[in-house]
Amino acid sequence: MRKNKKIAIALSGGVDSSVAALLLKNAGYDVFGVYFKTYKPFGDKTHCKEAGESAKRVADTLSIPFFAIDLEQEYKKRVFDYLIDSYSKGLTPNPDIICNREIKFGIFLDKARELGAEMLATGHYANVYHKNNLFNTKKYILLKMAKDKNKDQTYFLSQVKKDALSKTIFPLAKLTKPQVRKIAKKYGLHTADKKDSQGICFIGHELDVKKFLKHFVPHNSGKILSLNGDIIGEHQGSVLYTIGERRGFHIFSKFQSPNQNPLYVIDKNTKENTIIVGSKKEFDAHQKNIKFIKINNLNWISKIPKINKNYTCRIRHRGELQKCKITQIDHKTAIIKFKEPPFAPAQGQFIAIYKNNTCLGGGEIQKVIHNQN
Questions:
Q1: Residue 310: Cβ within 10 Å count
Q2: Are strands 274-278 and 222-225 parallel, antiparallel or unpaired?
Q3: What are the structural domains, with CATH classification, of the chain?
Q4: N or C: which end of the chain has fewer CB within 10 A?
């Protein structure tokens, strides 16, 4: 890539994007920083203001141009409303994946290009390879894992369109998190010791997800059932729970014991507003029946996976890579067969599929298929 290429770096105010900007400038690229404002459902703009000021301070330290753009309405429509609608339907959504697809590598990328950028850079831990075929007639985009496997974010990028990735670079691809912080300290960036952001950005640190959802998702208390169908307690609303969860519900005293072990959500029925809970042993036994998962909303980055070939996949960020095969596939859906049952898959979650260190893309869980079905 030529050195005078104009690159927009998405500055979040954190250490990762700060060092990404520094590396690009030191490499001789024409860099400018861009920060975008997101939607805050409670109207508290304090976090956005602090993050924006931190991003601006980074740009000033590096002596690069800086722009702030307002994407509040777009963010509300495409990310926040998606989250609320999904939970209202009893799904388990992933707003970070949707934010990457719709905002960061969608609308935000378009805005950066309107400002003159030829490429967009971010502080994600991932790698993009631009690979031509033998006769250089067609370019393939490969999304590969970062060097730091603990921080690798290819799962969150698995729904980004390949056209967007073709205009993207990830400067931190070959660095570990400790190396990034060391670089930040060396060059005097104020973000060097800044803590990583955790959780869903528009929820903040004051509320957990369930408390947050209660403000926006219609819910009613309902019955908690055992695997035998006995009513053993009461929950706050079936739409507020996901498979594998083990807190936030009340078990009637006559079903409790002095040394009560945690109970796990094994299944739920949002139409009947019930959830089924059981012991870890019962949960594991139920999980062992899972062999297939049907996914939709497919996104293939490099090429479409082949039927009955060996791949790996993960259902959540930092989730274990599990061996799998794709037994059926068309332009809308695919069915994944697992060698070992995956842990707590739920409708609405995303699956990312890998061939060695390359993320091929993935899709959204439409149906979890048990053996007895």
A1: 10
A2: parallel
A3: 6-186 (3.40.50.620), 219-277 (2.30.30), 288-370 (2.40.30.10)
A4: C
Q: What percent of the chain shows pLDDT beyond 90?
A: 79
Four-residue CA torsion sign, 251, 255, 259, 263 = negative
Point out the catalytic residue in the list 99, 313, 324, 359: 99
Per DSSP, helices labelled H in 169-301 are: 177-186, 209-214, 280-287
Active site residue 359: no
**Dihedral over Cα of 104, 107, 108, 113: its sign:** positive
| Residue length of the chain | 373
Instruction: Express each pLDDT in 265-274 by its tens digit.
Output: 999 999 999 9
Band (204; pLDDT cuts 50, 70, 90): low
- Angle at which helices 15-26 and 46-62 pack, to 10 degrees? 20
Q: Say whether 313 is catalytic.
A: no
Q: What is the mean pLDDT of residues 142-171?
A: 96
Whole-model pTM over 0.70? yes
